């Protein structure tokens, strides 16, 4: 790489950063001189969260103690925080409840969807390219409900759905390649055959518009520790479209989902609305960290986030082409904007050694074994200079670590 | 109540507090002049937890970010913290994993127990006096596995277990009355008929010796926000006896329970040992708050906790008999030590108004509808003067609120 082109790309990055309307949000986060491109695994700490959590722990728990279930709004946190996430994924209020892990929510959603589908529908289509936990949990659900799992590439689903299909479980963005699946098209094809669409939004929520209500998605799950910056292992969420709530029949009907939880009656009667998706006592510390973290979205339009995300990944790919030695890395992330999430995945034969060295030099992405370098772009706190520096350091590392 | 007897009881309380070897642990907690008798619902804040959590949030999450999964020991927290709980419930290392809510762990345990029982055993005995979530979840599990629920008083279980019994799910201490069930006897009776014993330790762990290994319990669950002081909604735990681990077949086989979770292979292969009970990404903030809170148990023998707990509840009952107007409250907590947990439950026709006024006057217990006043005794931070004051204020409140 010539000094001339380095100068050109750094200048271009500076120009893009100066014109970036979202750049001002970076100061809301606790950052250092690392280029942090792993916010698609663990979002960075919003700078105001430590003080908020100190209050939660010291005053709400330490002083108010049990009274905080009412006085600090702990009891209603799962629905309240669900309504904070709702606009980011295109859902009206009252359809999202926060709690449990993504895996547990996949179980609720898949079992409940088989019950909503009913009748003779005995097949569950599962995204064969999915993050594995979805497949493991769907297989367990199918084993318990007597359904058959049909693994498919999401692109094949519209052609494969039949009158036997109960539902499809699909990842909106492939965690490995960063491919954005066709949520509107796949959902419409499922509906045309009378089947339900269950979407996993882990790698899309907070990075791009999802449009759950607009596209008629039936059920959805997602995590909150990636683009939503809720903190390590922050609770996941469950979306149940309003039209399905009255018939939503959870396989995990814990006391928190009861219509009268403090009646403590031996008979179960499900709550109305989103609380029906609750299970046990919510993990308040993790949950209120998420609630605080969501403040960074105040005044942010997800459409603007999407535009910057695409500009960032475009620019990063351009810099990689310029800086990386010929033939050493190949992007497995789609070029087409309509098919790209908010990450770039580069196949590289020396990926484990290269990622370790990148991290050592202050560029943090992650490795997806055996050979994928994964770089996540979180538009609220990653800028174009970060993208240029990451690509430049990648080029240097590739020159320092010889091929095979 | 005469001034003479008040003086006698306050003097007796002072004498008991002065002789109390556990009294020194009170200073480990953030307390005020409230008499906090609701630690069986939400344990008080250990005073060192805020600083520990500030480090977790600001340094581990904020500075190390994704590296903390390895460098701060996040990934191994569920088993590591399980091993911290193990000695409190009489379990050897490697059998307890922390994570998810109690309800979710009941689901894992009940379904896995039906699979371990196998064969023609189609009945699940469920403690009819249980905290309701256990019954709701057991019913859901039974619906999915094709078993039949048989609700019984735990005392009836030894006479009811047959060759059709797969398992019994029993609460060690009744959340409402405070009755301690016969864990060794019920477990032995189940085993004699070839059935499994699944115990819920929510109201016993941290209050009295449980002896999971010694009594051959098969599976157990419990929460950590009561006597273990883990914080609001701190994660629950699952005990799987070592002899069952190889055949433990979870209905929630999330990626965290995979033998090679970062292999991210489409085929599921269960981890060995306690991690097989994991599901999804652990809620690290809630979990590390629990880990910090467990430090208060350093140097504490659970047998000493039990002895003080019984002395406290004995003394409280004695004071209530002395202070409460005749006929206004009736204890539903067993007199016999062998049948008593660490709480006192008083039936009172005016319970809602009485508890509200008690709280207003600085004595915090809780109400279990419709008519139970519940007072939990947490021996690490509740003393005999607290017990005397609580009974004295109760007497005053009962005189001020006339009988219905």
Automatic annotation (TrEMBL), chains A, B:
Known catalytic reactions: 3-hydroxy-L-kynurenine + H2O = 3-hydroxyanthranilate + L-alanine + H(+); L-kynurenine + H2O = anthranilate + L-alanine + H(+)
EC number from the UniProt entry: 3.7.1.3
Record keyword Hydrolase present: yes
UniProt keyword Hydrolase, yes or no: yes
Cofactor(s) the protein requires to work: pyridoxal 5'-phosphate
Binding positions (pyridoxal 5'-phosphate): 102-103, 131-134, 200, 203, 225, 255, 281
Positions of modified residues (N6-(pyridoxal phosphate)lysine): 226
Domain of life: Bacteria
Entry keywords, A to Z: Hydrolase, Pyridine nucleotide biosynthesis, Pyridoxal phosphate
Signal sequence segment: none
Pathway it works in: Amino-acid degradation; L-kynurenine degradation; L-alanine and anthranilate from L-kynurenine: step 1/1; Cofactor biosynthesis; NAD(+) biosynthesis; quinolinate from L-kynurenine: step 2/3
Protein family membership: Belongs to the kynureninase family.
Function of the molecule: Catalyzes the cleavage of L-kynurenine (L-Kyn) and L-3-hydroxykynurenine (L-3OHKyn) into anthranilic acid (AA) and 3-hydroxyanthranilic acid (3-OHAA), respectively.
Subunit annotation: Homodimer.
Protein name (Swiss-Prot/TrEMBL): Kynureninase
């Amino acid at each position: 790489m010539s000094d001339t082109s380095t100068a050109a790309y750094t200048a271009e990055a500076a120009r893009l950063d100066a014109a970036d309307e979202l750049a001002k949000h970076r100061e809301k986060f606790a950052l250092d001189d690392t280029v942090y491109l792993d916010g698609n695994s663990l979002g960075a700490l919003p700078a105001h969260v430590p003080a908020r959590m100190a209050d939660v722990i010291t005053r709400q728990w330490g002083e108010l103690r049990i009274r905080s279930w009412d006085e600090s709004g702990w009891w209603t946190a799962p629905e309240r925080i669900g309504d904070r996430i709702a606009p980011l994924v295109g859902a009206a209020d009252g359809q999202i409840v926060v709690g449990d892990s993504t895996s547990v929510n996949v179980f609720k959603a898949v079992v409940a969807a088989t019950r909503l589908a009913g009748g003779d529908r005995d097949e569950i289509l599962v995204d064969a390219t999915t993050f594995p936990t979805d497949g493991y949990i769907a297989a367990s659900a199918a084993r318990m409900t007597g359904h058959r799992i049909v693994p498919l590439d999401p692109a094949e689903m519209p052609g494969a759905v039949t009158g036997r299909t109960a539902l499809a479980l699909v990842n909106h963005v492939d965690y490995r390649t960063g491919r954005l699946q066709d949520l509107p098209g796949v959902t419409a094809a499922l509906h045309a055959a009378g089947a339900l669409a269950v979407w996993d939004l882990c790698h899309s929520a907070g990075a791009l518009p999802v449009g759950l209500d607009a596209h008629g998605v039936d059920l959805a799950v997602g995590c909150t520790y990636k683009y939503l910056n809720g903190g390590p292992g922050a609770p996941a969420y469950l979306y149940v479209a309003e039209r399905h709530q009255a018939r939503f029949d959870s396989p995990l009907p814990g006391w928190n989902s009861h219509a009268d939880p403090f009646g403590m009656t031996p008979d179960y009667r499900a709550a109305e609305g989103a609380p029906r998706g609750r299970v046990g006592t919510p993990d308040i510390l993790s949950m209120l960290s998420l609630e605080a973290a969501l403040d960074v979205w105040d005044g942010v339009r997800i459409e603007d986030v999407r535009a910057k995300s695409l500009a960032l990944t475009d620019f990063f790919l351009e810099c990689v082409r310029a800086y990386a030695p010929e033939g050493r890395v190949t992007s497995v992330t789609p070029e087409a904007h309509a098919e790209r999430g908010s990450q770039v995945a580069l196949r590289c034969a020396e990926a484990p050694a290269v990622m370790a060295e990148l991290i050592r030099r202050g560029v943090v992405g992650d490795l997806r074994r055996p050979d994928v370098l994964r770089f996540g772009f979180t538009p609220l706190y990653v800028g174009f200079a970060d993208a240029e520096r990451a690509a430049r350091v990648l080029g240097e590392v590739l020159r320092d670590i010889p091929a095979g």
